[in-house]
Amino acid sequence: MTRRVLAAGHVNWDVTLRVDALPDPDGEARIESQHAAGGGSAANAAVSLAGHGVDASILGSVGDDENGLLVERELAEAGVDTDRLRVVDDGETSVKYLVVAASGQVMVLGNDGANEAVGPDDVDAETVADADHVHLTSQRPETATRLARLAADAGATVSFDPGRRLDARDFSATIERADVLFLNGREAASVLGSEYANAPPTRGGLVVVKHGARGATVHTATGSYDHPGFDVDAVDTTGAGDAFAAGFLAVVLGADGIDADRIERALEYANACGALAATSEGARTAPDRPEVEAFLDDQY
Ligand code: ADP
């Protein structure tokens, strides 16, 4: 059975600038290369999911400008259903400038843009009607909570990858409703408390904690699984988290929702996705299923 996943949240246009070093105030850096492509956590996850053979659709918003057109075209070319991508009249597509230094340090500049135009009143049962699973990424907390509730009412499972603005917003109502929660170590410490690694949360869902180059851990109500990650030459880890989440979902979602028997395989596959994404530039660099399988075959 094809699983249908709706990814909801940010849809951006990303410009990645590789510089020799991040400049100090009043300083200047040399751009060594630049690369522009679609980005945004929900869009990245949707494209990755499509690459793993999942029937993926996107819920989000762009402006009616040239970047919005480019974003929509890229999503459609990747096989993502864009019927729920809202184009805001006179809106400006959200743009992120990712400044990546040779050392690996990253600085992000962004406008607000149109990427949070979808609010709680814009979504209803119809929005999630086709989905077996809803993957929520950074967006307005009220929208995320409403979508989680609608998904649960429709019998769909929910994952949540809140991302770096977790500290600035109260996502607790969405976190409570998520069947799968993706966090990095810093986010996990703030949501779950610093002892999270030794005391897996007793909630029913899965909590997946990403440790960058050191892999990831899945906490379940009955135990934890670790994967040490893969040793690769990382050039840009932007988007590694989105690639990881998509890979994990592509494997763990079974015909009847989350399949506990697939957790270990999903963790390995997701780590391969994150590692491969880290080896190329830009946020939209997730590998597809044949690339991940070839990579995994080479490891053993
Ligand atoms: P986020 O980008 O959300 O903060 P991480 O940086 O932890 O998340 O990356 C997500 C996953 O991508 C990691 O759990 C790991 O599997 C993989 N990954 C990230 N950076 C590297 C790296 N330098 N080498 C190998 N794998 C990496």
From TrEMBL:
Coiled-coil positions: none
Pfam families the UniProt entry points to: PfkB (PF00294)
Superkingdom to which the source organism belongs: Archaea
Domain Carbohydrate kinase PfkB intervals: 4-286
PROSITE patterns linked to this entry: PFKB_KINASES_2
Keyword Nucleotide-binding on entry: no
Ranges for region Disordered: 280-300
GO biological process terms held by the UniProt record: phosphate-containing compound metabolic process
Alphabetized UniProt keyword annotations: Kinase, Transferase
GO molecular function, one term: kinase activity
Keyword Nucleus: no
InterPro entries, A to Z: Carboh/pur_kinase_PfkB_CS, PfkB_dom, Ribo/fructo_kinase, Ribokinase-like
Record-stated family: Belongs to the carbohydrate kinase PfkB family.
Protein known as: Carbohydrate kinase family protein
The organism's taxonomic lineage, starting at the top: Archaea, Methanobacteriati, Methanobacteriota, Stenosarchaea group, Halobacteria
